[in-house]
Design brief:
Two copies of one chain form a homodimer. Chain A is an alpha/beta fold. Chain A is built from 15 helices and 23 strands. In chain A, the strands form seven sheets. A seven-stranded mixed sheet of chain A has the order 7-6-5-2-1-8-19. A four-stranded parallel sheet of chain A has the order 12-11-10-16. In chain A, helix 3 runs parallel beside helix 13. The longest helix of chain A has 21 residues. Chains A, B: It holds the Pfam family NDH2_C. Chains A, B: It is a peripheral membrane protein.
């Protein structure tokens, strides 16, 4: 190792940290590693005089100020869900710079999330990085993604207050900063509803983010394995392997279906010792799949019961670490509790000093503008039509969010092209047609190659509704073509194929 | 929803919890969901009289006692690494029952672990569930996998003391239990060496388990994103994006290579704003890849330097949350610190009252038996030949572990076939040839379609050594055929292909 042996003998000009940058593959490569390395060592030695900012006491300052004449106008998007991501995808980046603020750097393909809990799909297959949805964010000098939470909106000064996220010890403490906007799109989504029931937040797992699905999977596999260990009583085995799902909407039903499919196909084979103890109970206060056609609901009830899901009508009163208590006093012990009883406005949305729609969402007009607040728009689950529009608040569906994102991207592009992209301008631009929502139908899978497809435009309307294998096939194909990138389309297809051929994966990582 | 409407009107015989078992797909399916469901509700009501075991105060008792006449003899395997898994794969389950005790339910395909940190491979692709390696564990009534840690060995009474693992709140507290063995195979592996350096365990990340790779990935992506946020000083950007690897063995070199490849190919494109700040430094006290041929080492040094890895010779004295201090006083600020300076005996192995090999590993003879302890064998990184064999302790390599596992499976099968499978029997069986290790060569990848393959049988020996693209191709093919299951072979190939076509995945989940 001539390189190392000559290291100490070399003398080189003292250089200050940081050492020479990583060479670009196009730049000339250093041909004398001996020199460059000893040079680095020297630079390391000299570094000790520098003062590194301690992660405990960072001195952060710096905002992203208002855009100047030489820059493009800036669209700030709060959130990276269906609404925000579809908007960013559609924004014309030759007109605007895009800045996205979100605590996660990817969009979650929520309709497929339930499948990841039991290993039918990989977690990575349902997550789409924001930088792949809108490549300008990674490349353009004025476009950014900030891994941060929005803490407030200062509409008077056209700026938002943000705070970075942290990730436990050894990561920097969070700090605050401001971003000035020309146009602001609020797409903050909604929060899982707990109806103030004690213990839900502490003991139940929601099913809205990838980390929720990961936690469900880890818990499920842990319980399966612990019930096999000597010293577990029969009663505790029953408890550990009782999976309770609260909420009979599409998410709850799909998760129950996937879970019973997993039990039928995989647990029986791979955890033969405990297969007779595992069961799934779905608790719903009213009707399951209330938005679907009567015939489809009956079909779903039949299918779920057939595959071993116990359907129970009840209202949860209290959640304890190992059991839930229903309003009639029944105690239901559980090992895994998944909570999906719908969503409502988040505490941040509630706290914002903006016009509101009935129900507490951010109020918008028919062009998705927040009335009387210049340059501020709201889309997706966090927004709803104000009463004066005479329109009902739209349901919290991916479909609505995606359509609003697409519409607003077009509207902002039109405004920008007409020269109204800057803050406090564009009032005179013709906005064109208002946003009109047309329901394309609903889908839900039940596991075991069965699904429901309801193509009616409203609950009362007429139209096609399908159930069974054909629906399952349509469901899979529809999702496959809607997953945003080709990479993920490919991965989802590969995952489905592998699960069919080899069964689900059961490694607990 | 007739099902729900009739629910309260129904009356049914009171049933006790648990409700009827999940019906098997082959059994008759209930045709009257109304009845079965209300029956369930009744059973739920009646359950409240039962007392569920609280997770805080479980009353665990029960051991896996000695095998009786009607049972097969029991082989207990401690650990699920290369050695233990290869052994289980080879055990003849018509002769023995197999019980595996390990805190993880999968084997990690360690040579590919470095690739998962930067998204070249998925985490799942390098994990192989124990139940897939030896299917009897999931199916046979006397074979088990216990998610537990071994806490001690009571060789006199032919049993091991175990304790279950826990996973934070809402999971059962750990409890202890005993397993009696007929034959015991200790394959507990080794622990990362920290040389007693202060702060290593707190601030550095090792690269030995899937969760380590996950943590490295999360940290790396967090730092990449935080450095882009307004308010980060130039100095802190440099610190956050300085990845320091300590240890120039194959793991350290492979990780550095993958990381610089990730920076060259993906960070430049996807994190364009911060691309000039990220750098990789590899610190090694002696020579990098000391087990490889001189020419290969020179080649590796050249390739790593070319791809921007800074090679530094130094000894780490102290590790702080944001910087390491070298023995010459140099302070090196870091945002990510990966530690791979080799392995040594774990504290459990050290504490076991068994014969030891030079260096503290569990002593074994040439048939991998622990001398003077009947029916106890040790294989893999936790074991070493006792001095009296006159043989050197073998290196801590997957290759050695795998070969020992294979050999011992054959030996145990031979003993079992000759009727010596029970505890305290088999002493008279002819053991055949002792275990002889023949080194097949070493491989290491350097990133960017380059790898080293050293086919010499020893450091001083003669033989073929290759470097460059051909080696990279051999490396990939060799690993592809060695990943145990077809499922994972398929996934690794798909992952590699996707990375080539679409680049690496950068979602932080």
């Amino acid at each position: 190792m001539a390189w190392f042996r000559t290291l100490t003998r070399m003398s080189a000009t003292a250089k200050s940290w940081p050492p020479p940058l990583l060479p670009s593959p196009l730049r000339t490569v250093p041909t004398a590693p001996v020199a460059s390395a000893s040079l680095l060592l020297t630079s390391l030695r000299n570094f000790s005089t520098g003062t590194a900012a301690s992660p405990a006491s960072p001195t952060h300052c710096g905002d992203l100020g208002p855009t100047g004449g030489g820059e493009k106008p800036r669209v700030v998007v709060l959130g990276s869900g269906w609404a925000g991501c579809r908007l960013m995808k559609g924004i014309d980046t030759s007109i605007y710079d895009v800045v996205c603020v979100s605590p996660r750097n990817h969009m979650v393909f929520t309709p497929l999330l339930a499948s990841t809990c039991v290993g039918t799909l990989e977690f990575r297959s349902v997550a789409e990085p924001v930088g792949r949805i809108q490549p300008a964010i990674s490349r353009e000098p004025g476009s950014y993604f900030f891994l941060s939470n929005c803490k407030g909106i200062d509409a008077k000064n056209h700026r938002v207050i943000c705070e970075t996220v942290t990730d436990g010890p050894n990561t920097p403490d969070p700090w605050k900063f401001n971003i000035s906007y020309d146009k602001l799109v609020i797409a903050l989504g909604a929060e899982a509803l707990t109806f103030g029931i004690h213990g839900v937040k502490e003991h139940a797992i929601f099913l809205r983010e990838v980390h929720h699905a990961q936690e469900i999977r880890r818990r499920l596999l842990l319980n399966l394995m612990l019930s096999d260990v000597p010293g577990t009583t029969e009663q505790e085995k029953s408890r550990l392997l009782h999976c309770v799902v609260v909420g009979g909407g599409p998410t709850g039903v799909e998760f129950s279906g996937e879970l019973s499919d997993f039990i039928m196909r995989d647990v029986r084979q791979r955890h033969a010792h405990v297969k007779d103890y595992i069961r799934v109970t779905l608790i719903e206060a009213n009707e399951i799949l209330s938005s679907f056609d009567d015939r489809l609901r009956r079909y779903a009830t039949r299918q779920l019961t057939k595959s071993g899901v116990h359907l129970v009508r009840g209202i949860v009163k209290d959640v304890e670490p190992d059991k839930i208590v229903l309003d009639n006093g029944t105690e239901v012990p559980y090992g895994l509790l998944v909570w999906s009883t719908g969503v409502g406005p988040s505490s941040l949305v509630k706290s914002l000093d903006l016009p509101k729609a009935p129900g507490g969402r951010i109020g918008i007009d028919e062009w998705l503008r927040v009335p009387n607040v210049p340059d501020v728009y709201a889309i997706g689950d966090c927004s709803g039509f104000v009463e004066s529009t005479g329109k009902p608040v739209l349901p919290a569906l991916a479909q609505v969010a995606e359509r609003q994102g697409k519409y607003l991207a077009g509207l902002l592009n039109r405004i920008g092209k007409a020269g109204g992209g800057r803050a406090n301008s564009g009032a005179e631009v013709d906005l064109g047609d208002p946003f009109v929502y047309k329901h394309l139908g609903s889908m839900a899978t039940l596991g075991r190659y069965k699904a429901l497809v309801d193509l009616r435009q409203s609950k009362e309307g007429k139209g096609i509704s399908l159930a069974g294998f054909l629906s399952w096939f349509i469901w899979r194909s529809a999702y496959l073509t809607r997953v945003i990138s080709w990479r993920n389309r490919f991965y989802v297809a590969v995952n489905w194929l592998t699960t069919m051929v080899f069964g689900r994966d059961i490694s607990r990582i």
